[in-house]
Amino acid sequence: MLRVGIIGGTGYTGGELLRLLSLHPKAEIVVVTSRKQAGKPIDTAHPNLKGLVDLCFEDVNPSQIAEKCDVVFTAVPHGAAMAVVPELLGGGTRVIDLSADYRLPVEIFEKVYGKKHEDPRENMYGLPEIHPEVRDAMLVGNPGCFPTGAILAAAPLVAAGVVERAVFDSKTGISGAGQDPSPVTHYPNVAENVNPYNLTRHRHRAEIEQELKAFDESVKTSFTPHIVPSTRGILTTAHIFVNQELTSDEVSAIYEEFYNGKYFVRMNKPSLAAVRGSNFCDIAFEIDQGTDRIVVVSAIDNMVKGASGQAIQNMNIMFGLDERTGLWTGGLSP
Ligand SMILES: NC(=O)C1=CN([C@@H]2O[C@H](COP(=O)(O)OP(=O)(O)OC[C@H]3O[C@@H](n4cnc5c(N)ncnc54)[C@H](OP(=O)(O)O)[C@@H]3O)[C@@H](O)[C@H]2O)C=CC1
Ligand SMILES: CC(=O)N[C@@H](CCC(=O)OP(=O)(O)O)C(=O)O
């Protein structure tokens, strides 16, 4: 059994890690941290897990955690992971970080996040459909939720060298903002409403660019997010402008070949409901006949394929398990 630790166990992604790992046949959760809820049972923060995870939150230091664990998930805010990762790695454990601390080269991170990186080191971007090399990594920077849906939607066409520009328009559920309440997440501001934000400069644009430009340096990208009145899920509409005419069969072949053997990407009508609670990314496309545009739509659960499920997929690959282990569940639709 893999001995697993979670730093930041009271949060939304920590709760999803606990929910999914409690069903994982090859993982045993041995330590879950919280500074504010230390000593309390897991189900005080996550009532849905009563009877499933029989542990209490602990406030312990990273080297004590490393001693007990083969792998540790850091499900903490940006900037907090880099404060614990060096000690975890020094203790010999492998780390999957759900924050943005290890997704970008240091100079880009510092520019985008406006803070100094305290632990500059090479990063391994944990989008396993594109980076199977995660298998050998000691530290994986698990992707952001929006970049996961956007990159998976566009990567096959960008890798085929046919894309001039990709414009991503994403709608997200509110859990992407984490558990701390704010005016943005306040019910009257979210219910029966759609809120666009960071129209041109959302920090996730850097991740999207990093991954797509690795396939084709000349591709141009734009990204605009919106919050919709849903707890979970991200639906991304990608307007992809191409440099040549393609038939529907040709585009289908490009996607089928790119995602051949990639279990968690399905060519399937995307909807938030169909992927809710699951690690799937559903993708469909339509060619805008007579124009240079292909509309590609993807749907993920931001907390599963967009965070904790993908992190467990990475763990499975890093430890030589079938990537699907513990992630068998379908979506909760309808
Ligand atoms: N929500 C989402 O859909 C997604 C989130 N992410 C990223 O995952 C990370 C976690 O997100 P999320 O679960 O939403 O966040 P939450 O705000 O819901 O939870 C944060 C957790 O981190 C702990 N924590 C906070 N500050 C520190 C610190 N300085 N040191 C140690 N622990 C700390 C908190 O517990 P306590 O204060 O008790 O210690 C809490 O358990 C973030 O970096 C986020 O950007 C990534 C993809 C999707
Ligand atoms: C609704 C909402 O606020 N969403 C978050 C996305 C959070 C996320 O998952 O990404 P990171 O891990 O990079 O923080 C946002 O736009 O900042």
Automatic annotation (TrEMBL):
Highest taxon, organism lineage: Archaea
Cellular location(s): Cytoplasm
Span of domain Semialdehyde dehydrogenase NAD-binding: 3-138
GO annotation (BP), single: L-arginine biosynthetic process
Chief location category: cytoplasm
Pathway(s) of this molecule: Amino-acid biosynthesis; L-arginine biosynthesis; N(2)-acetyl-L-ornithine from L-glutamate: step 3/4
Keywords, alphabetical: Amino-acid biosynthesis, Arginine biosynthesis, Cytoplasm, NADP, Oxidoreductase
InterPro entries (alphabetical): AGPR (IPR050085), AGPR_AS (IPR023013), AGPR_dimerisation_dom (IPR058924), AGPR_type-1 (IPR000706), NAD(P)-bd_dom_sf (IPR036291), Semialdehyde_DH_NAD-bd (IPR000534)
Active-site residues annotated for this sequence: C145
Similarity annotation: Belongs to the NAGSA dehydrogenase family. Type 1 subfamily.
Function: Catalyzes the NADPH-dependent reduction of N-acetyl-5-glutamyl phosphate to yield N-acetyl-L-glutamate 5-semialdehyde.
NCBIfam families, sorted: argC
Name listed for the protein in its UniProt record: N-acetyl-gamma-glutamyl-phosphate reductase
Species annotation: Methanooceanicella nereidis
